[in-house]
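Changelog note: in this version the structure field was regenerated for every chain. One regenerated record is shown below for reference.
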Amino acid sequence: VEEDSLVTSAAIERELSDLKHRLSSSLKEMETLRLQQTFFNPDFPPNFNWDEEINENDLKASIRFCEYRIQRTRAQISNVNRKLVSARKAEELGHQASHALDADERTLFVLGLGSDHCHKSVAKAVFQVYGDIENILMHRRHCFITFSTKDSATKALKINGTKPLGRRIRARPKLQPYAFALSPLTPSYSEPSTFSFSFTFSIPLASLSPAAT
């Protein structure tokens, strides 16, 4: 494998830093949107001249999308943190992070087998229909199942939410336990009506800074 294609903890740290910067920008954007939202309160009208148009319905949609983006980015940060932990552990042991992450990407976190069925033989019987299993690490109420290929691990995700043993099983990729991080960037939902009136008015650009007085 070429050196440039190898994943290192330093590269993952840069990815994590970019996500944190993106989250910080989104949070600042939300502060501005929330400030704009207060201008629609008829009990507290803005006491300045207006020079930028803001439509209430557009503002409402912007707030919902910004909330979605913040939630999605936080989930991505949690997932990348797990990659970073695995990469650092591998490098501390003198191994390449890419090899450790390759195994982790073929590993599922499984919860819901129950104490009566949380045994390697049971886990293997349930999951081997999706592909060859390389390793099973058992804990008291959950386990990690590593498949020989990533494709098999992906197929095994179909078991999530089913009840093959009478209990609902939860299966998630080890490095991506927060499934919301994989949601589309553009959400699809109908915007509920949250305001009792809708109109367009203008506000001064200088007032949009959260630090403005």
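Spot check on this record: The beta strands are 53-55, 107-111, 133-138, 142-147, 170-173, 200-202. Residues 188-209 have pLDDT under 50 and may be disordered.
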